[in-house]
UniProtKB/TrEMBL annotation:
PANTHER family: INNER MEMBRANE PROTEIN YDCZ (PTHR34821:SF2). It comes from Clostridium brassicae. Signal peptide: none annotated. The lineage of its organism: Bacteria, Bacillati, Bacillota, Clostridia, Eubacteriales. This is DMT family transporter. Keywords: Membrane, Transmembrane, Transmembrane helix. The chain crosses the membrane at residues 31-49, 61-78, 90-112, 124-139.
Length: 140
């Protein structure tokens, strides 16, 4: 079930990048990011209210874990900027390649409190295939 959900996430991300990029084209990059995050804030607030969830922060959470929102602002900004020049498929493909590299590094070293999962050299074959696909996309 989680694998099906992961595919669904991929579909949603493609839709999100498209909608965000088109909005950014109408209102500008920075105002677009602001609108996107305000709508996101309102949406999650309504979900929390509807589900009657309390805002309860634990005291022992490392401060760096709160940086995800700032990372999200940069993510949406760069997606919107790249969308205009590269289109959806290339923006997402290059972004997923970057995510793959970062996730392997995070897993291998156990950064950000993650469990260590050492790099398996067989994964190099997958990275090479992805890289070949990206080169083909860039050239054609």
């Amino acid at each position: 079930m989680y694998k099906v959900n992961a595919v669904f996430i991929g579909l949603l991300i493609a839709i999100m990048v498209t909608v965000n990029g088109v909005l950014s084209g109408h209102v500008g990059d920075y105002l677009g990011v602001l609108i996107i995050h305000i709508v996101g804030f309102v949406s999650i607030s309504l979900i929390l209210i509807f589900r009657k969830k309390k805002f309860d922060l634990k005291k022992d959470i490392p401060i760096y874990l709160f940086s995800g929102g700032a990372v999200g602002v940069f993510l949406v900004s760069f997606n919107n900027i790249c969308f205009k020049e590269l289109g959806v498929s290339l923006t997402l493909s290059l972004g997923l390649f970057g995510q793959s590299i970062a996730s392997v590094i995070i897993d291998h070293f156990g950064f950000l409190g993650m469990e260590v999962n050492k790099f398996n050299s067989k994964k190099i074959i997958g990275f090479i295939l992805i890289l070949v696909g990206l080169i083909i996309m860039l050239v054609y």
